[in-house]
Amino acid sequence: MTGGKHTDSEDQQRRPRRWLRPVIAGAVLALAAGAGAAAVTVGMPTRVEDEPNRPANATTKTDPKKDTTPLAWGPTRGELATARELVSGWDEKQLAGQVIVGRYHGTDPAKAAKMVRKLHLAGVSVTGENVVDEAQVRETTAAVSRAVAADGRSFPAVIGVDQEGGVVSHLRGVATEFPEFERTGDAIEAKPGKGVAVTTEAARTTALELRDLGFTWAFAPVADVTVGAADPTIGSRSPSEDPKIAATAVSAAVQGYNAAGLVSTTKHFPGHGAVTGDTHLGLQELAFGKKKLKRRDLVPFDAAVDAGAPAVMISHVDVKAVAPGKPASMAAPIYDLLRDDLGFEGIAVTDSLGMGAVTTTTKKPSVAALEAGADLLLMPANSKAAHRSVVKALRSGRLERSLVEDAAAKVVAMQLWQQRTAGAVPVPGDVRQQAERASAALSEAASQG
What we know:
This protein is an alpha/beta fold. 45% of the residues lie in helices and 9% in strands. The chain contains 18 helices and 12 strands. It has helices spanning 8-13, 35-39, 58-62, 77-87, 92-98, 109-119, 134-150, 182-190, 192-212, 243-260, 290-297, 299-306, 332-341, 356-359, 365-372, 383-396, 401-424, 431-446; strands at residues 100-102, 123-126, 158-161, 163-165, 168-169, 217-218, 263-269, 285-286, 311-314, 318-319, 347-350, 377-378. The protein has a 4-stranded parallel sheet with strand order 3-2-1-12. Strands 6-7-9-11 form a 4-stranded parallel sheet, sandwiched between helices. Helix 6 (109-119) links the parallel strand 1 (100-102) and strand 2. Helix 4 (77-87) crosses helix 17.
């Protein structure tokens, strides 16, 4: 196995090495009564150790696409089989597009839609520069959805946004304002049971509100364990300086997103909270040894995997103990760490490929990330150029078609999960009011410490 790619047989036979044992608060599943508690039963199951093998029924034996056995990261085996069959018939341009989430400039919905349709992109990431008001956001998400449908794809577009709460909220003035994610850690530290409940409800209502606006993904929650004042990039975006508290917060948030039928993205693996420089500007080092990395930074990511995280974002940090000299997103040993040691089988997403840590160090970063083990490329500096480089690498043989097919199939399967789960969880008419109550409840719980 290289770069985190696995086959079906490997998925069935492999048992991850569980050297991590995060202490997750016993109240993670003891949510408040009402809509929040009921919603947690919908979506992905929390992963358990050594789940007994289930016998395949007759239908499964004759048609793998009808196998309803859920995978640890959300989709069923049937959805993944359907996705693999679909992408096997695509040409290089279609395959390349389906592993890219593009960036665009300006506020014209037609521009975003045209880019998605022309390049066959999985979708787009909406940033603050793309936002005018609620009506324009809805027009944008609808236009991108129509573009994917017009391209012959019957599953939803990846329409994502950084909506963490606090300082990183790209829908400011459009969606409900939530406090910074560190407040979840404060709430859990004050009263674990209540803290978990308000954290899950905040994620659930955030997800429902994003779905109401036309989004299918959120690039959250943040699982980084901050070191405090020396951390210039993450800071209050982190749930805590305590790995166990951070793990509890991230686990609760993942379950809230899953319950609402929105794809969450736990970030920034393998940890950005102890990095004292800004990867937006250039390559920064994480100088921890492996023991400290495992004991500290990896604990919340392990908890997220156990909670059923569908996607994990890979940072651009130079992790000296694992893959020195390279951005993590371009380093196969980092993906191996995520997949082999943490047992993650879902979608590995790069951090934005327009950041200085990548643009100043790596030629053809989109190709390099796929070679290393990425499944989805987020916001290349130039979406058209990134698409062209992946197509060229496929045609030249630098990228094996099977590797890109595997990545594309996982993205398609994830969108089939999102479509199915969202269909089972309607957005309530009072979603804004629910979100506002959840935001206030989180702030109140956090202030009781």
